Protein: HIT family protein
Organism: Fictibacillus iocasae
Amino acid sequence: MKHDENCIFCKIIAGQIPSYKVYEDENVLAFLDISQVTKGHTLLIPKEHHQDIFELPEQAAASLFAAAPKIANAINATFEPEGLNLLNNNKEAAGQSVFHYHMHFLPRYGKGDGFG
Ligand code: 5GP
Ligand code: ZN
């Protein structure tokens, strides 16, 4: 499996950096973002290291989207938001700061919830 020893998210997958896990299967991992933009802010990543959407193999994309509704429902059950944004930044110019593909799940609680 593709791994980058300098990548923070690869270290989380390897258990070298602790994280609060929301969901895990053979191919993907979801965990709480260290900086909670809104309550329950979660990141979903492939276990294989791929930098961004431009380098994401079809199989990894399929695994991510297969898991996405499960994570959305887990967030709903735990945090009871009013809505949910899914976001993905690709490349520095688009706001990407960790270069291991990830999807943000941002639970929304109405006006003044800290996002948008
Ligand atoms: P980006 O800006 O690349 O779209 O998002 C990267 C996200 O990773 C940020 O929201 C940031 O808070 C989160 N993050 C960075 N380092 C860590 C970490 O060590 N643990 C966790 N759980 N999240 C992290
Ligand atoms: Zn990585």
Notes: The domain at 8-108 is CATH 3.30.428.10 (HIT family, subunit A).
